[in-house]
Amino acid sequence: MDGQGFSPNQFIVGGRSPNVNNNTNVLSSNAWTQQGPRNEIFERELFSGINYGINFDKYEEIPVEATGNDVPLPCAMFDELQLHPWIQENIKRSGYMKPTPVQKYSIPSLLSCRDLMSCAQTGSGKTAAFLVPLINHIIRNGPNAVRMQAMNTCGRRTVFPLALILSPTRELAMQTHKEALKFAYRTNVISAVVYGGRENYRDQVQKLGLGCHMLIATPGRLLDVMSQNVVSLSDCTFLVLDEADRMLDMGFEPQIRKIVDHSMPKKGKRVTAMFSATFPKEIQILAQDFLMPNYIFLAVGRVGSTSENIVQRII
User: Fold this and answer.
1) Cβ pair 177, 216 in contact under 8 A
2) What range does the domain containing 129 cover?
3) How many domains does the chain have?
4) Which of 100, 108, 126, 209 has the least CB density, counted as fewest CB within 10 Å?
5) Which helix (H) or strand (E) holds 214?
6) pTM, whole model, 2 decimals?
7) CA 280 to CA 276: how far, in whole Å?
8) CA 314, 180, 79: angle at the middle one, nearest 5?
9) What is the mean pLDDT of each run of 10 residues along the chain (315 residues)?
10) Is 32 within a domain?
11) What keywords are assigned to this protein (predicted)?
């Protein structure tokens, strides 16, 4: 158990399957061992395009400030992280050569089950900074840690995701979902996305009924499906607030608090990561309420600015 009271063994659902090695980068006896088959058509759609890359030489000049108790050492290369081989394959397929500053610090911190408040430039590679450790945790904990769906008292299927990523807009939610599909390719990890709009509501609910390990959602739509018992967050032990400052600017704070306070495990029983381009007082209060007191604070570059150097996305 680390300094914030969260044991890697508690990452599994409700503590029902405690056979997880204390080293979260060591394969659990319950871990998945059978990799999924290749789908060349889907693979081309997922990974094809132009990799614009990153100006790493210029990026080395950007200052990084990481504060907190026992901050894990940053990684210089992805190979240092001892990630599951399936994740490593997908990182290479995506054309990522080495981690960006936000990834260097965020991934080791989240792999260690530490709460994180990360302030980084827009376009800094933050999506991979939380998706890589999130998917790695799910794979290593294996199928015995998963209760993807169950019938509720109304005769409907209720989904129990292990991880929730909240996004301010449908565009960001869809983009994050696509990135999740890349890192989860040929793994057993299932990603689902729900966002506002009447035209695809039924389709989203039907797909949710199949179950998922990680759910990417906008706050309003998530509350809708929660109110219908389509989704329960009682097993959710990994929470990400992506672009938290934008969500607050758009007036989503009441919805966010309602989601987190509804049935989700309390802080200290979950890993929580907040990503924000700015760090105003409202975000500081949210961090105080949602994160453990000794959370890691990460500031990359000039907080609130936009990156000129990073794209790190395959279009």
Assistant:
1) yes
2) 44-141+152-300
3) 1
4) 209
5) strand 214-217
6) 0.85
7) 10
8) 75
9) 41 33 48 86 83 59 89 95 95 89 96 95 86 93 64 73 96 96 95 88 88 96 94 95 96 97 95 95 95 95 56 39
10) no
11) ATP-binding, Helicase, Hydrolase, Nucleotide-binding, RNA-binding
